[in-house]
Design a protein that fits this description.
The protein contains five helices and eight strands; from the N terminus they run E-E-H-H-H-E-E-E-H-E-H-E-E. The chain is an alpha+beta fold. It has an eight-stranded mixed β-sheet with strand order 1-2-3-4-5-6-8-7, sandwiched between helices. The chain is globular and about 40 Å long.
Length: 176
């Protein structure tokens, strides 16, 4: 199984069905917080929903179209990080992430995203990395800004969450 030690506290592991119950439980504990920003949360009602998502992501992983990893911090499942889309022809990857509230403010996500970029370079020969964040989500936007991504623009009304629309800020980083 794909697993990488990011630093002494953080580890990335390919998301596999054995993580279903823990990933669902983490989603449940953070449901109210996550619902503010992520439209998929409302679709996750049972552990089977989480398992179905994991199976779908593994199918995309086999085709080198995506890579979904769980983040473990001091042995506890803390969140998720992914190449939601890998475009091998254009050597680009679109990164997405979320972290449970109890794990925020420790630099976990910044270090994990940095490591995921290395994975993209080493295993997929990616040269362009993109992160899209809701314009009002300051915590999420801080990650690409800390890692030297450039703000490339704003996509207006990019995503509907519940009854309101979010603009997305698009960040890009080129590595050759």
């Amino acid at each position: 199984m794909f697993s990488r030690q990011v630093n002494e506290s953080s580890r990335l592991c390919l998301t596999v069905p054995q993580f279903t119950d823990d990933l669902f439980a983490l989603t449940q504990r953070n449901r109210e917080y996550l619902q503010a920003w992520l439209p998929w949360v409302d679709k996750v009602k049972t552990p089977q929903d989480t398992r179905d998502f994991i199976i779908e992501q593994l199918s995309k992983f086999v085709l080198s179209e995506a890579l979904h990893a769980c983040i473990f911090y001091d042995g506890l499942l803390a969140g998720a990080l992914a190449y939601n889309c890998i475009d091998l022809q254009n050597r680009s990857g679109q990164i997405g992430y979320w972290l449970g509230q109890d794990f925020q403010g420790k630099g976990i996500m910044t270090e994990c995203v940095k490591d995921l970029i290395r994975v993209g370079q080493d295993y997929y020969q990616l040269e362009r990395f993109e992160i899209r964040c809701a314009a009002k989500n300051a915590r999420s936007r801080a990650i690409p800004e800390r890692l030297g991504f450039e703000m490339e623009g704003t996509i207006r009304r990019a995503e509907k969450v519940h009854d309101h629309w979010y603009d997305h800020i698009v960040y890009g980083k080129l590595v050759a």
